[in-house]
Amino acid sequence: MVSFNEHSTVPSLLRNVVENIHKPEETFLIHKKNTEWENISFETTLENADAVSSFFLERGIKKGDRMGLMIENSPEYVYYDQGIQQIGAINVSIYPTLSEHEVEYIINDSGIRAILIGNTFLYKKVLKIADNCRNLSYIIPAFAEYKKVTVPEDLNAQIISFEEVLSSAPNLGNKRTAEIANIRHSLSPSDTSSLIYTSGTTGTPKGAMLSHYNFVENVKVCLQQIPVIDETETFLSFLPLSHVFERTATYHVCCAQGCKIAFAQSLELLAKNMGEVKPTVMNCVPRLLEKIHDKAIKSGTSAGGLKAKIFLWALATGQDYRKKKADGNNPGMVLSTKKAIAEKLVFSKIKEKTGGRLKFMISGGAALPKNVGEFFGNLGIKILEGFGLTETSPVMAVTEYHRQVYGTVGRVIPGIEIGIQDVETKEMINIQTHESFNEDFKCPEGEIIVRGHCVMQGYFNKPAETAEAIDKNNWFHTGDIGRFYKGNLQITDRLKNMIVNAYGKNVYPTPVENVYLKSLKIEQLFLIGDKREYLTAIVIPNKENLQEAFNLPESFFQKPELFIEEKEIIDWIGQDIRKYSNELAKFERIKNFKVKRNPFSMEEGEITPTLKAKRKVIENKYAATINEMYTETVDAD
């Protein structure tokens, strides 16, 4: 049985599973080694965690020290995390896609003592910056090929393989095991468990301090809200554990409930892995669901004829059945029979590609298009949506399993308050809790604010930014605009112009735009990419430099065509786009762009008197051109 109490911490969750839910020799982790899936028991996981604890205790690591991870989802992540957490050290997981500059900043800002590295590319990245990182003492590669990489002769940090770290696992002895247990039992829920870095409006990463209490309470109430998750589940994990969503909603949930975690090999192999692992639950981002939706629609209709008619009939039948059930009505014998036929002819074939056992998926990180959610609902696959931020551990609201309102992110979780605050007057429009839920309730929109157990302790070493985010009444201001609709929270806009791409990555336009504006060829740049798979931009060239480079007459800028189509000009600007992209993380890089002939203007309502771009105006005005950038073939990085 799951057991939460006032003393629960992240490392105590897994110990409770072994004591009360599963036998130590039962499977906890599943990963693919060479060509075969390998099962790893709870016992092996905890032995390896103890080895990690012992290794760092011998080297003076103590409670409160920050320990880095830059590694893909894997058993090694779990061993390291459990090992450091149970001696009170703090997990600082770094996105593998961040630039060298950003990685260096995070290592120094947090004071990371040791860092676990997952592959050759990341290892080389850390070696380049290691001597600029004053507190970094240990670099720990978790892959055999690290020996082939040339290491700087004057490297200050010590390199120790993770294999060596784990080598003491079978031979720790009772004394050391007891010492580790004593430290684990001495941990307080109020102790910081993790720093997760999230970019601020200035682009400088901020470390959100999340406590054991933040995480444990978030897991506890989410399991209350979705009580169908039990110890028999198999989760397939592919979203990065450096992201708070996957950390809490897969890893911590499985640690608490005793579910199995299977690690996908890669995003490219995800479909194959789903068929092999046959998961019952998955956390995902909207883009994955959109791809499945698009592929299914294309496959079902492209052949035309009878096959397409059957497919469309099945979807219509599924929709009628779903709506009847949602309205609390009995579908009746005729519709139920039609649904059974649709299931056999169409739905079962789609479900087989997910492994055939999927109970539901939880979508987070970005908004799920309503039609995509309804499509899966018509198939009989539940998509539960959730909402939260790094700073809120992360879940603030999540869809209930038995009550779904498409286009919303669900009911407020137990134990917190969500307020809707007027953006202009700052007056509170409404406050909702889990207990106040009314499926007929709705209210006007405003900024979403929250207080309660999910709110972070603050930003690490940034008291001013913390005070700006969390007001004197302990409300955390999310910067998102929303309302309550049918009792559920609905996200309608963003207070600021933050872009959230289709994979849930947050991109603040201004710092990215400023990188590209270093180019003398570019006068203005407008970044696009919200809910999109990649970033694009509308670029306004520096008129003087463009004229000089191509000997252009003034009449060139008076042509009626709004966008420049000359290939040589596009290639000229593209040189600098590619050049400055190297300063950015992969998900921040522009993959396509259009060159606008003349600047945005106040006369056209495109910019404010202070020359700030009016995002909605520009996106609506140039919607056709923007859409072109996402239908054209672009080069991948």
Give an account of the 3D structure.
- With 637 residues, the protein is α/β, with parallel strands linked by helices.
- It is 37% helix and 22% strand.
- The chain has 20 helices and 28 strands.
- The chain has a 9-stranded mixed sheet, sandwiched between helices. Strands 7-6-5-3-4-8-9-20 form an 8-stranded mixed sheet.
- Helix 4 crosses helix 5 and helix 12 (305-326) crosses helix 13.
- The chain is globular and about 85 Å long.
Cα-based radius of gyration, to the nearest Å? 26 Å
Q: Which sequence of strands runs across the widest sheet?
A: 2-1-11-10-12-13-14-15-16
Question: What name does the CATH topology of the domain at 10-187 and 226-280 carry?
Answer: Rossmann fold
CATH class of the domain at 10-187 and 226-280: Alpha Beta
Largest sheet: 9 strands, mixed
Structural class: alpha/beta
Q: Count the E strands.
A: 28
- Distance between the amino and carboxyl termini: 47 Å
Instruction: Kindly report the average pLDDT value.
Output: 92
Coarse morphology = globular
Strand portion: 15-25%
Low-confidence stretches: none
Architecture per CATH nomenclature, i.e. the level-2 architecture of the domain at 10-187 and 226-280: 3-Layer(aba) Sandwich
What would you say about this model in short?
Residues 23-460 form the AMP-dependent synthetase/ligase domain. Keywords: ATP-binding, Ligase, Nucleotide-binding. The two termini are 47 Å apart.
Question: What descriptive keywords fit this protein?
Answer:
alpha/beta; Rossmann fold; GMP Synthetase, Chain A, domain 3; eight-stranded mixed β-sheet; 22% strand; globular; AMP-dep_synth/lig_dom; ATP-binding
